[in-house]
Amino acid sequence: MYEKEKDLVSAFLNGGMSRRTLIRRLGALGLTAASAGTLHNMMATRALAADFDWKKHSGKSIKLLLNKHPYTDAMIANLDTFKQLTGMDVSYDVFPEDVYFDKVTAALSSGSSEYDAFMTGAYMTWTYGPAGWIVDHNEWLNDPEKTNPHYNWSDMLEGVRKSCAWNGVPGGKLGSDDAKQWCIPWGYEQNNLTYNKAMFDKAGVSVPTNLDELIEASAKVQAGNDGIYGIGVRGSRSWATIHPGFLSAYANFGEMDLTNDNGKLSAAMNTDGSKAFHAKWVKMIQDSGASDWSTHTWYQVGTDLGAGKSGMIFDADILGYFMNGGDNAMAGQLAYAPFAANPDAKGPTPNIWIWSLAMSKFSKDLDATWYFMQWASGPEHALFGAQKMDFVDPVRNTVWQDEMFQEKLNKSYPGYVDMYKTSAPGASIKFTPQPLFFDLTTEWAAMLQRMVAKEIPVDEGLDQLADSMNGQLTEAGLR
Amino acid sequence: MDHRSPLERVLRALALTAIVVFFMFPIFWIVLMSLQTNETILRSPPSMSFVPTLKNYAAIISGELDSNAGSMSIHFMNNLLNSVLLSVFSVALALLLGVPAAYAFARHKFRGSEDIAFTLLSFRFAPPLLVLLPLTLYFQALGLANTYLGLVWVYQLICLPLILWIVRGYFEDISPDIEHAYRIAGHGWFATFRKIALPLAGPGIAAAGLLAFIFAWNNFIFALVLASADKQPVTVGALAFVTASGIQYGQIAAAIVMSIAPTLLLALWAQRYLVEGLSLGAVKG
Fold first, then answer.
1. Among A413, A439, A457, which residue terminates a domain?
2. For residue A335, is it within any domain?
3. Shortest distance, CA B231 to any CA of chain A (angstroms)
4. Which of A19, A43, A298, A459 falls between 20 and 30 A from B220, CA-CA?
5. Is B175 exposed, middle or buried (0-12, 13-18, 19+ CB in 10 A)?
6. d(CA A436, CA A216)
7. Do the domain assignments include residue B67?
8. Closest residue of B to A391, CA-based?
C-alpha cells in the first residue's frame, strides 16, 4: 500500500524531482493534499534517520526554556516529530518576552541545571559566553559522531551564522577564525521598511530609497493622511531603540559605534559623519515621528502600523509581517521594501536580531541536548516552520529557495521576498561585541531622547555621549 | 435629622460622584476594553460605541487565543489558580505563625524581643532580587525549587512581617487588664489568648490578613525566578498576551478583570475591618 507514493516522495527527498512534479504526480495517484503532507513528513523523518543514529539517546529527557514567540509555537507544533525520531522526551517552560531574559539570567547565574537549552539573542551571548554559562557549540558542530550528515551547517546564512560567533575578546570581529559559536541561529529579523500602500498612494508618495527621501516621504505621507504620523521608529530609553532602523541606517554610512585600536575601544559617535546622520534622524522624528516617540518599543511601533496610525515603519521586517495579518485594521494593506540610507552605498546593511538556541553549560547531558539543537535548527524543521507556521525570517538558504515558502510570501506579503533578497547580503550585527554593550547602547538611546526633545544640540550631545562612553570603557579596562 | 441645605446636599453628591468616577474610571475603561476586539480598541479616535463581545473571556477560559500569528495557547486559568493557592496558603501560614508571635511581642517583653521583631520587619527592606539568587541555590539544594511548598515559604517574606507588625500594634492597643481579669478567674494564658485577645484583635487580624493577601497576590518576582511556567501567578501570566506578534489588548483587559475580581470582592467585603483595623492598630493610647 502506498508504495508508489512512497517512491515518489523518496525521489523528491533525494532531490530527483521538483516539488511541483511531486504534487502533480501524487494528485494523479489520487492522494489528497493532507494525505500527501502526512506521507511526506513520514518519509522525511525516515530520510533524516537513514544515516545517523538518532536513537542514541532514546529514553532520555531534556528541558527547554523558551520565549513566547511564533518560532516557539512552530517548534512545539512539530515536536512530536523529534520525539518519534529520537525516542527522547522534551519538556519546556514558555515565559512571556517581557520577563523572559530575567528568567534566563536567573537560571544561568544561579548555575541551575533545570534547563538544558534555551532561546537567546546573539547580543546576550556576549554576556553569557564570557561568564561561562553557555558552551562553544563548535565542539558539537565539528564532531561527525554527534552531528547528523544532513545538518548542512553551511546552509545557514553566513552573516547570521557569523554574528552568533565571537572570540570573547572585546572588539573582536564576529565570526573570526578563533570565534566560539555561542549560539545556533534559529530565526532572524532584518530591519527594513514596511509601509501602508494605501496611505502612500493617497499622499502621492513613492517608496523612499535613501535617508533624505525617507525624511521627505515621512513628512509627505503624514501631511497627506489625516490623523496619522509619518514614520514609526523605536524611542524608549533602551538599547533596543538603537539596534533596529537607527543602526541599520547609521551603519549604511560606514559609521560605527566604537573604534578598535589594537584592542583599545573608543566611542565613535562624535565623528562629523555621525553628527550629520544624527541631525537628520532627530529632525525626522521631530517632524514626522510619533508624538509619544520616547515611549515607543517594538509593540507600539507595530501596533500603530497595524492600526493605521502610522504611514510606515523602519524596523524589523517580521514586525511588518505580523501586522499584515490577524485582526489588525490594516491587515493586507502593508507592503515591504529594502532600504539603504546612504545613496552611495552598494545596498542595504540591516543590523539584525537573531533568535537563537544555546545549550546551558549546566545541562546534565549536553550530547543528548545537542540532538534537539540540531533537529530544531535543522533544514527539515526550518522548512516545516516556514511553510506551515510563521517561522520568518528563516536562517537557511535552502528554505528561502523553497517554492512553496516563496509562494506563500508573495501571495500575502507583497515585496517581502524581494526585500529579503536585496538586503540579506549586507545583513549582520553591526555593533562591536564587548561586555558593556547594554549599558553603552542604553545611554546612546537616552541621549537620542534628549536630542529629540531639544534638551541638547546634536553636536554637543554626541560629544558628551562619547566622553561618557570613553570614561566607562577606561574604567572597565577596555580603553 | 439632616440639617444640610438642598444645595449643600447636591454639591456633596456631585463631589462624591466626581470622586467615584475619577477613581473607578480606569476599572470601568478596562471592563469596556475587555468586551471589545483589538480592532475596535485601537480605533483612532477611541469611541464608546461598539458591539460587545465575550470573545476575550471565552478565549482566556478555553486557553486558545487568536493572534496575528495564528492561534496560540495560554494557560491563564492555571495562573489564576496558582495565585489563589499561593496567596491563600501563604496568608494562612503567616497568620498561623504571625498572630501568636505578634501577641508574644506585644505582651511578653523578653531579652532581644525588639531585635527579633525588627529583624522580621527587615525582610521587607531587602530588595527581592538581592536575596533571590542565593535563595535559588538553597532551594535547589533542598529540593524546594519549583514547588508550591517552597513558594509558600518564600512568600512569608512578604506576609509574615506585615501581619506580625500590624497585629502586634493591635494587641498593644487592647488593655491588658481584661486579660488579667480573665487570668484571675483561673484561666491559663493560652485560653486567655484564644478567648479574649484573639476576638478583640479580630478586626486587626482581618485587616492584616487582607493586606497580606493583596501583597501576595501582586507579587511577581518570587515565582518567576523560583518556579517553572506551570506555577506562575497571574502577574506573570498576564504578560503572555504581550507577544512579538502584537499586543492582545482585549484579552489583557479581560485577564485584568478576572485577576482583580477576587481581591476586589475580598476588599469590598472586608473594607470596614480594613479601615478600622488599620486606624486602631496605628494609634497608641
1. A413
2. yes
3. 10
4. A298
5. exposed
6. 36
7. no
8. B69
Q: Which pTM does this prediction carry? A: 0.83
Distance CA A163, CA A173 (A): 9
CB-based burial label for A197 (10 Å; 0-12, 13-18, 19+):
middle
- Residue in B38, B44, B68 to test binding to A, most A beta-carbons within 10 Å: B68
* Total domains present in chain B: 2
Residues of chain B with C-beta less than 8 angstroms from the C-beta of A329: 39, 42-43
- Work out how many domains chain A is built from and give that number: 3
> Does the CB of B46 have a partner CB in chain A at under 8 Å?
no
Q: Residue A333 maps to which CATH number?
A: 3.40.190.10
| pLDDT tens digits along A367-389 | 999 999 999 999 999 999 999 99
Domain span at residue A440 reads: 190-351+430-475
> Do the beta carbons of residue A342 and residue A253 sit within 8 Å?
yes
Residues of chain A numbered 137-196 and touching chain B (CB < 8 Å): none
Nearest Cα residue in chain B from A318: B245
Residue where one domain finishes, among candidates A12, A34, A50: A50
Query: Is the Cβ pair A328, B247 closer than 8 Å?
Result: no
Residue A135 belongs to a domain: yes
Does residue B71 lie within any of the structural domains?
no
Give tens-digit pLDDT for B185-208: 899 989 999 999 999 888 889 889
| pLDDT of residue A340 exceeding 70 | yes
Residue B69, domain member (yes or no): no
Residue A14's Cβ-count burial label (10 Å; 0-12, 13-18, 19+) is exposed
- pLDDT tens, residue by residue, A49-89: 668 999 999 999 999 999 989 899 899 999 999 999 999 99
Is A106's CB within 8 Å of B68's CB?
A: no
Instruction: State chain B's mean pLDDT as an integer.
Output: 87
User: Is the same domain home to B13 and B48?
Assistant: yes
Q: At B215, which helix (H) or strand (E)?
A: helix B202-218
Is residue A364 one of the residues assigned to a domain? yes
Residue A2 to residue A8: CA distance in whole angstroms: 10
Of A96, A326, A327, the CB nearest to B240: A96
Question: How many contacts does A have with B, using Cβ atoms within 8 A?
Answer: 111
Nearest Cβ partner of B38 from A298, A325, A327?
A327
B258/chain A closest Cα distance in angstroms: 19
B-chain residues within 8 Å CB-CB of A111?
137
Cross-chain Cβ contact B229/A95 below 8 Å: yes
- B130 touching chain A per CB within 8 A: no
Q: Answer yes or no: do A365 and A234 share one domain.
A: no
The chain B residue lying nearest A310, using CA atoms, is: B44
Q: Could you tell me if B113 and B206 lie in one domain?
A: yes
Provide the CB-side half-sphere exposure for B203 (13 A, CA).
Answer: 16
Q: Are strands A310-316 and A229-232 parallel, antiparallel or unpaired?
A: parallel
Are A15 and A84 in a shared domain?
Answer: no
Residue B42, chain A, CB below 8 Å: the answer is: yes
Run of H or E including B70? strand B70-73
